[in-house]
Please model this.
Amino acid sequence: MLLKNAARQRNLKGIACALLTSSALVLPAPVAAQANKTGIDPETWTPEHVRSIAGKTTVDTAAECSKIVPLDYEGELDYWYVGPNEASPQLEHEMYEEFWAALAETYPNIEINAQNLGYNDMLNKLRTAALGNAAPDVARLPILWGSEFAAKRQLSELSPEDVGYDSDDFWPGAMKSVTLDGKTWGIPTNNETMAFIWNAGIFEEAGLDPDKAPDTWEEVVAYSKQIKEKTGKNGYGLVARVNAGNTPFRFMPMVWGEGGGALDEAADSPTYQETWIDSDGTRRAVQNYYDMYVRDKSVPVSALTNTQTENQDPFLANQLAMVIAHPSEYATMLDRASRATGSDKEAAMEVVNNMRYGKIPKGADRRAVVFGGSNVHIFNPDNIDGDLDMEAAKALICFMTGPEWSTKLAWVSSNPGNTRGFETEWMKERLDTIKFLDVSTSMLPSGIPFPPVAESPEIMNIIIPEMLQNALTEKMTVEEATADAERKIQSLLDGM
Amino acid sequence: MDKRRITRWHVFGWIFLVFLLIYAVTPLLWMLITSFKSQFAALQYPPDLYPKNPTTEQYVRLLSPQNDVGRQFLRYLLNSIMVSTVTTILGVAVAVPAAYAFSRFRFPGRKALFFSVLFRNMFPAVVFLMPLFIMMRWMGLVNTYSSLVITYLTFGLPLSIWLLKGFYDNIPVQLEQAARIDGCTRFQAFYLIVMPLSAPGIIATAIYSFITAWNEYVYALTFLNDDQKLTLPVGLQRFFTEYATNWPGLMAASFIMSVPVVAMFLILQKYFVRALTEGAVKA
Amino acid sequence: MSRPHRSEPSSRGLIGQIIDHRWDYLYVLPALGVMMLVIAYPIYYTFYLSFFRTPPSLAMSEKIFNGFDNYATVLGSDSFQQVTWNTIVWTVWSTFFALILGLGAALVLNREFMGRGLLRGLLLIPFVISAVAASYIWRWIYHSDFGVLGAVLFDLGLIDGKLNLLDNIDMVLPSLIVVNVWKEFPFAMIMILAGLQTVPDQLLNAARVDGAGAFHRFWHVTLPHLKGVLIITVLLLFVQNLNHFIIPWIMTGGGPAGASDIWITQIYQIAFGRIRFGIASAYSVILFLVMVVIGYFYVKALTGDEDRQAH
Amino acid sequence: MAQVEFQEVVKRYGSFEAVKSVSFTVEDGEFVALVGPSGCGKTTTLNLIAGLLDLTGGAIRVGGRQINDLDPKDRDIAMVFQNYALYPNKTVRQNLGFPLRMRKVPKRELEEKVNDAARLLDITHLLDRRPRELSGGQQQRVALGRALVRDPQVFLMDEPLSNLDAKLRVQMRAELKRFHQDLNATVIYVTHDQLEAMTMADKMAVMSGGVLQQYDTPERVFEEPANVFVAGFVGSPAMNLLPARVVENGGAVQAAGEGWELALSPRNAASARRASGDAVILGARHSSLILHEEAAPGCIAAKIYTVEPTGDLTYAHVEVGGKTFVISLDPQRRIRADQPVWIEFDQDRLHLFDAVTEQRLPPG
Model:
């Protein structure tokens, strides 16, 4: 068994090497084709369109999955995921409980040992676990993480077809994120894009139109300045901490909008071999940050040590006017406001009532947003604690990536990865009950995934934030900062 | 020495002491004050120097077994108590005979081994994270408290052994001889006569072990996966910084977490000074 | 003639002696066992890995031997100089101030007065509090937008506008040192306090009779007597500071723009942020070597009295 | 109480022999002093009896029972240490009771014995104090008491008086002797102070270099020292020793040195003839020498070096043939330094030793 695995491993390596050289040229084409095939067009995917397709079909998940794994299958499985936590809205907790109950009813003989891990800890834990061959059988990971494990061949190959679904039913951006070296290493579970939220009350105070979002990044800078000058409150919730995932999530949309990029991920057919960092577009974006932080001082001073979580409280406390936020932000804020007490509660509810959602502003070049979400992966049997129960893994994955549960598990915070979910009754219910869902959902086609290469975490979480810090502390000029980042990324690509 | 004359050194000393007291205690006071503010009240600028509408909501949330957070928190608290206690007991059980042997016996290699024990402090924890994890995995200890206890043991051991050895060096060997003639076995002589004499040292090393284990964060984060098994520092970190930075909550949790060790230390601090005096400094 | 009775050396040479003393080893075995377990393999692994290239795209089993390249990468990297300088500043000043404050506190507390025990206890609290909690407490105090320190300084007219410490290249490291000293000075204090209690009164009285003032008594009697304790304290603090990870990591993550990056945060960043265990290992080995040099003096200081006793 | 028998006891540390084949028997009820300079092996010997050290060879029997391999606790002995080794964290009462407690003596009996011992030693008022609150003499008594309560077969005492000041030492010496007489106990007492040994012991075992030099009553050790070492060690001031050559001068036997000669009495002459060669050592106690201020027949010429009056006696240090003698004088006599004197030997009390073997030459 061991020998066989080793032999397979070596084979894989050979194939991978062969593909690696050609992938740059060959791969993007089918992905682009896929995009056309699903027919998701940013122009037609409007809030109205999203509403119009909801509730059209019904789904029988048990029936669909029974074709893949018989319902009486007996097995055992370790599963790690980033699930609801203390700060999550109550509804999300309930959805997960419902999910586990439904799964237990459908597959009563599969025992699942599920670990709900914190977002901040999970990546490092998973790395050490995989290295120590103590990884779980199955894990659902944030979109950026999978490629590292795929590159190391610590994952098993897995595509929607393996659990009875059609790759065309998933977002092309999402499929890009699970594709490496021409192979598919996971299935998207949920996808979302961020939106722009603002406090209409502060806008009014500052003499701005309370119901009109800034449409361009240039306007954001101007608004921020005006808010600071007129109200003394901070305008835009800038964050630039190193090693914090939400720094690039908020900065890259601006970079792409202005026509820049880290690699060429914003290109129509990205090769992930070119760097776009030392470009006018990126420089414009860094300059915007510089103008807000250094020139206008219209954003929190603590931006360089802050993460997005530290912007929530000021926003809710009516101290901060604009942030780029997750779709679930509204639900979270509402939840927290309702839990506040005394005078806090009144103030918070007022802020929640003043909350407005809009599309992410566009730059000189386009409107763009980070394509986010999660994918589910099966680990390589070699890296697992014990034996891999493939059938049990497939049963779980089929169950969770189907239209029903990919919609329900994404209830408050995201959207189904399986686009058939948009046609279900549950999607309709969500649209009816969740404020601004149509707005955040309509940004999905503008989503650009982070480069699905192993170096992505280093580029996005370290090099880009460091570039920002270099410029914002005036250690370097904007030009020097982008040039410095260019050099670092280039040396990564050169295989340092 | 005891002349009660006030010199300029005394005045200077008192000024210095007041400054130091402010430096040491104000941050703690601010932690307490913040913990009694509501989340929004904490975000006033300039901040209120005392909570205008003091609230205990954070404490209720953390300590009430009625809700999820409270239940989880209490569980983390129990986990931490367990890990720290086991570490402390084992630490003393391991350190005492080793220190005794280093003090009393003259076996070959004694010095080199003594050095090697003291060397532990040289190595930074984060560097060992990966290899230790791999090793714990080999031993099948990942996600168990044993992995933490084994690792934590080594934090306290160098100081414990060094301190206790100093104690044993100062206890005349004739006491044990007398005891053995008086009818003790070798072990009884140690247990009934030498151990009680080194009690301040044992208490001091026990406190030290307990505190280091109680406060440890990096290994606990890496070795434990199971949500139900987390220790307090990791659990708290997860509560409060993942999706929202709730400063009053963080401060309340820091306070609750500090209470047991601070109380223990304040009660037993005189042993600590005595142990250092008799065991480490004088030896 | 009061030789402990199991100490007779044997004429049989080293092996014979070891056999004669075989039961003695039982006493130290558990302590050494657990030490070896936790240290030996990680040291070996770190050295081993430092000679391999481990890019994030390769599994560990496919790492590539590259000799001393990782060392060259570390020593030749742009940031190495700055990080090393930061490390020196961080370690030296933290140690220095912790020692000075600890010494001052110990001297004041060495006198008998009402409430001495309480004062000593209050000053010791920071030592006991977890570094994680301390980091959050101080981050909150320093907070540029809501921090109490900025507000107080503003009221006193010492600053105009927001206080910017942690997001400021020039202020961040001193600010972190203040936190670190806050946590460490009580340790220095308690060590020195213990040392002071062993200064014989006769000596001080003799100096007094000789006409020495308070300062001279301190300088010529107390300080020389404290030498041993001070050396040990300095070394312990030095080692601890060189290894200190949590305060800079939680408070700033090494930022802004690397201004508070020290060796140990760099190592963590390279290992877990950039997933380059090979380079991180080489970096660790460099840190080890520095530690070994310091460790030599440390062990010498710790066991200095040992030599005197054994002969 | 019991007899203690040493049979060819050897103790080696590596290549160093600390105790070399020592044999002697302590009779039941005897007070034996092990005496010798420091490093002579006396404490080692005591620790061998106590079981604190393991024998390398030979056997030790107490009351006929071989105890070589027994644990100290099973040997039924008690020991008083030089530094008393009182348990600092226990009260006097607990210290006294400890040996009984370890032997599981019933509580009532234990209390009785502790009280008896305390009464005997006059420390009843100290029972609830801790050792550090006691004076040296009181600690000494407690240490003794701890040995007494158990009623052991043998008492071992390791220089128990050496930490006391001179006055207290004299007092305790008397008390110890009295206790021994009252209890009729077997005591083995280690001391480096020959006076202590002389005054207290029934028998003295003089040791040097790990070898038992002489084992006998103090009187005999004093009067008939077995060798040069014992002669020089026992007695204060020490015996005066003078190397000499034996010269036969037509029937008369003379001892001669540098610039002096002494005709030996027939008895001493007979002794001298037994020497292995012609070299002997003359030994004379300070009291057996008579000082003349004028030349007299049979005397040796000498010169006063210095004079030490002590009240009872005056000691004159006298230079003889490159050596210094100490001679006791009546304090009434007036002698000056550098004064020429003549020394007369009391031939009946003259000791002769073989200069090669250093052994005593028995009288004819």
In short: The mean pLDDT of chain D is 89. Chains D and A do not touch (no CB pair under 8 Å).
